[in-house]
Amino acid sequence: MVAVISIKNNLLFCEYDMSAVIANQEKQIREGISSYDPNKLLNTPDEDLIDYFYNKLNINPLILHEDQITVDQKENRIDVSREHSRFIYDRSRPVYMTGTEIILEVPFSGDSVLFKCRPSTFNFNPPPGEVHGQTLYISVQTLDHNSDSIKKELESRLRSVQEYISWISDDIHPWDKSIRQKINTWISARKTKLLKDRGLAASLGFPMKPKESAYLTFAAPDVRKKLPVSQPPASSKPYMPEPVLGSDDYEHILGIICKTASMLERSPHTFRNMGEEQLRDQFLVPLNSHYEGQATGETFNFNGKTDILIRAQEKNIFVAECKIWRGQKYLSDAVDQLLGYSTWRDTKTALIIFNRNKELTNVLNKIPVTLKSHPNFKRELQIAEETSFKYVFNHRDDSSRELMLTVLVFEVPQ
Fold it and tell me: What does the DSSP assignment read for 2-51?
């Protein structure tokens, strides 16, 4: 016969309501964003803040490592006062007999507090067990040595635990899928409020005025008790708003570059003898035909041999480099060159690569390997084009400042 070690005090999955736990996590995130140092918040890239609050307060689902289960046994006194098959004169007091306790030790990963949470789906027979550290202990007591019945009882309780874990995961999954977007919304709302409070929101945009005569030929594609989590590095000095090139303008500029490069690809004999500087000049005219500058008739200009620039307040907010493919080292040097030009927050950059050999696939394979190994690489962004790549890099001297780098590859054979 198998007797349960305890019923009331050791029941799992019944202390807290899972929906209340999730709501509390959201509350802590919102309070954390609301109390975050204003200047640090404004000086830190959104993606870094999202990662920080997500990693600090996300919920890690439970996973049992059944391949690592071990079993132990020990002698124990068993209360048999509730066993009606025995003649016991006074059942109001415990009656003990010496028996054996079999203990299943189940390692797990995830937040141990979830063993105390009742999921939205549950039954009225939660499994008993104890949790210490990252190990779940499932025990049965017996007065005989019927291994089949002991094994059957242990397996039954383990299945019940797994069932509850699956219900818990069903509650966590949709929340985990949506929380990063919620964090992004809350961060954006607070940043907007802070900037409005300071009366400086209008200083954030760099107004690029399309010429009325320009035909817009491009549309942008749709685009546990935890370990300590450190705040992303950022200055707490007063935040100074800076001009930025809007994402829509950036995508439009890239589209004009692609249209122009396609023309070069269709007429390779015309451009095959051109160097990087001459290829660069092919882009300035169509770009300036779409946009007019604030102080001069030309928004796009150059400073040096191959760069295409937009400047605001004496700073570069858009930089493009035209390079002929000469190998991975040359590509890495080109990134260093862009980092040298890009001293302003949120600079948008582009590398226009012209391939003049017949191994385009080999070139395309080398570009992400090279850029992801660069010391200032931060993360990769999704892009739909086979010959385009998009990344976020840290600025050279300030890890809290980011620049966006798009690499466009075109074939202009010799």
Answer: EE-S-SSTTB-S-SEEHHHHHHHHHHHHHHHHHHS-HHHHHHS-HHHHHH
